[in-house]
């Protein structure tokens, strides 16, 4: 009997230590400044409670859960674009998103005279709701004077709704939207170049056809280019769940790059960059600053914000100041080079 009690005590103490360990691990792993982490995880939840008026599916970037009865249909629809189309179609085209920027980024002031930009979005058989949510997020979260136009390049889609219906829809938007059509399937890069050739803005921004821009995404990107027009910038890319369309803040302590097999991967920001920024995570992280601009600075500076295939493997500056563009999915039908790390 005594032995049994003894065992229980030992068990209870070890259990306590396991819990303490788990707690310590959760608290201290993967973050240098833990108050940041707390800020990020607590505030969106709080804000969601405060903004009771935005209660529709997926508002404030919340997950959309499909009821059991519709699961079969959901799985069928999933196959069309390789994401949960049913969930996407339930979410408003102008849904609200949490502001997940670091506090330091929210109060930054950018120069008034920033260059304006043409946003080029290539699509192939994209879903209506994801494509237009991308467009709406660009329109509503970019200062109007900075947004010269949006150029949609259709890489030979077959879906009927991407023809006249799309043209009619975008006419109603307050920003000029051009739709260019490739005569035949040409791939992402050719289609982007076609969009770039038609661009009238001072800066070209490439976006995926299924992303959502958050508040303050554009100004820091353009500010870097204003400082040095040879700069190529890339925002922090967060993730939208392909299952629930939940908005999930990514880490600003990683950057996208290519491994020797030319697969896209996320890498931790090197210590030398941390040191250079003296711990100020609102400053951009620099990469490959020698090679990339030579190729790109012909007529335009390109602001690149693509998850899947940045035009050059080495992006010059990954702007971590306040830019957050939500990442798309790796399985989007029309890319041959796929990322598998999201
Ligand atoms: C989206 O648009 C609808 C209709 O125009 C409007 O009622 C709603 O407030 C908008 N939502 C957001 C988050 O702006
Ligand atoms: C972009 O800015 C330039 C220089 O200020 C201006 O000439 C041009 O009209 C602007 N373009 C648009 C479409 O706003």
Automatic annotation (TrEMBL):
Pfam families recorded: Glycos_transf_2
Domain of life the protein comes from: Eukaryota
Asked if the keyword Disulfide bond belongs to this entry, the reply reads yes
Compositional bias ranges of the Polar residues kind: 319-342
Question: What is one cellular component GO term in this UniProt entry?
Answer: Golgi apparatus
Q: Tell me which InterPro entries the record gives.
A: Glyco_trans_2-like, Nucleotide-diphossugar_trans
Keyword entries, A-Z: Disulfide bond, Membrane, Transmembrane, Transmembrane helix
Q: Which GO terms describe its molecular function?
A: polypeptide N-acetylgalactosaminyltransferase activity
- For the region Disordered, what residue ranges are annotated? 318-342
Annotated Glycosyltransferase 2-like domain ranges read 118-278
Q: Name one GO biological process term.
A: protein O-linked glycosylation
Instruction: Provide the transmembrane region boundaries.
Output: 9-28
Q: Which PANTHER family match?
A: N-ACETYLGALACTOSAMINYLTRANSFERASE, POLYPEPTIDE N-ACETYLGALACTOSAMINYLTRANSFERASE 13
**Protein name as it appears in the record:** Polypeptide N-acetylgalactosaminyltransferase 13
Per the UniProt record, the source organism is Coturnix japonica (Japanese quail)
């Amino acid at each position: 009997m005594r032995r049994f009690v003894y065992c229980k005590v030992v068990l209870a103490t070890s259990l306590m230590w396991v819990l303490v360990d788990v707690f310590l691990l959760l608290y201290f792993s993967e973050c240098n400044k833990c108050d940041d982490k707390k800020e990020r995880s607590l505030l969106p939840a709080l804000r969601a409670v405060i903004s009771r008026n935005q209660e529709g599916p997926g508002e404030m970037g919340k997950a959309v859960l499909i009821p059991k009865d519709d699961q079969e249909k959901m799985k069928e629809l999933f196959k069309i674009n390789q994401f949960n189309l049913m969930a996407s179609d339930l979410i408003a085209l102008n849904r609200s998103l949490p502001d997940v920027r670091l506090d330091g980024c929210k109060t930054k002031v950018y120069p008034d005279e920033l260059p304006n930009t043409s946003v080029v979005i290539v699509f192939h058989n994209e879903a209506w709701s994801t494509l237009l949510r991308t467009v709406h997020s660009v329109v509503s979260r970019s200062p109007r004077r900075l947004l010269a136009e949006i150029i949609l390049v259709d890489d030979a889609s077959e879906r009927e709704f991407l023809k006249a219906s799309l043209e009619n829809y975008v006419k109603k938007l307050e920003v000029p939207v051009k739709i260019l059509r490739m005569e035949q399937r040409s791939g992402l890069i050719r289609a982007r170049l076609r969009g770039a050739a038609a661009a009238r803005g001072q800066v070209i921004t490439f976006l995926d056809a299924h992303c959502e821009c958050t508040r303050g995404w554009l100004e820091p990107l353009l500010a870097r280019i204003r400082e040095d027009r040879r700069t190529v910038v890339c925002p922090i890319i967060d993730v939208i769940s392909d299952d629930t369309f939940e908005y999930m803040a990514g880490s600003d302590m990683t950057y996208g790059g290519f491994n020797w097999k030319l697969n896209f991967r996320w890498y931790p920001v090197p210590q030398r960059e941390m040191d250079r920024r003296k711990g100020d995570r609102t400053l951009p992280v620099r990469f490959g600053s020698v090679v990339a601009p030579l190729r790109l600075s012909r007529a335009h500076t390109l602001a690149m914000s693509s998850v899947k295939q940045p035009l050059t493997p080495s992006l010059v500056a990954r702007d971590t100041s306040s830019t957050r563009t939500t990442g798309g999915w790796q399985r989007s039908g029309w890319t041959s080079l796929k990322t598998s790390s999201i």
